[in-house]
User: Fold this.
Amino acid sequence: MILRIGLIGLVLACSGMVQAGPDWEKIHLTDLSGYGLFAATSELSAAHTGTLNARTRYGPANLVDGDLFTPWVEGRTDAGIGESVFVVVPGNCRRLNIFPGHGRSRELFSKNNRPSRLEVTFHAGIHCDGEVTETALLFHTRRFEHRFLLELKDEFRRQTFPVPVSSTELAEFLEQSRREFNAGFERPVARVVLIVELEILDVFRGTHWDDTCISEVFAQDRFIPEGMIRYPRVTRVYVPQEFPGTICMDTKEKTGVIVTQDIRAVSQVGEVSTDGRWATIMQLPAAAPPGRVETVWRLLDLRRVRFVEDELAQTWGSEVFGPFFLQQESGSLFLEHASGRIRLY
Assistant:
């Protein structure tokens, strides 16, 4: 029996997976341009827009859209214990970042259920040429041997968890899965991905609705800032010549907004993203000692007017070192740093 979920054309078996052999199962993952691959076993029903590949209001696309205001909401009439979501993550996944509950406001967070315990299962997913629907890709999957339990806090914030298995083990699992698939099936492999499944085991109860929400799921390769936006559009970022330790910016509403003042530092603006959301900053001590002085690279969230290196380090899993470069690619913005790259939202 096949279940059609929402308007994004997501097709799953009624259990979320379909048996396809002793070790292999099947799942359809929806692919919306720029979002990534995702699925869920259910979603809260919503009126459709009539547009192909449209996101439903509470569908699983909300898990990967980079917007904490938009949650996935399970579609059961109870708290959704046993419901799962599936998100493709990097093959070297080291961290899982989860914003549990409704992220739009603390009020909605409290009124809806939030997961308190999640079971994590990794799957190797293999996609072959031609195995597609209108909006989804078919993946042949097999489970990683170990499952893990996440205990979440009832807090209105992103929560970060280290993956308790090395990236080397995950890479070997993907490669072994590819070899075994090639040995058992006569179809050319087009893509091999790592899928994380999060199953709801228990929840913190909401005060008003018995619906369980998750707003975002991502690995160390993405960064989604938290907090309210103070300035939707920044038009200019600069350091006044007479105050080298001061960083200012102009917005559509106001000029000369002071971001930071530090008489001990000399600041320089590196790059500003074309959307006016991010800026890279270089800082040196104003009274530099003799010899080589290290440049400190910082990332400034212009809309929220704060530096975010500590948050970056938490989601990445270690300190993020400069130099920093902003790279636009396929409609997305990436921060290139000494250890890799992070997609910025």
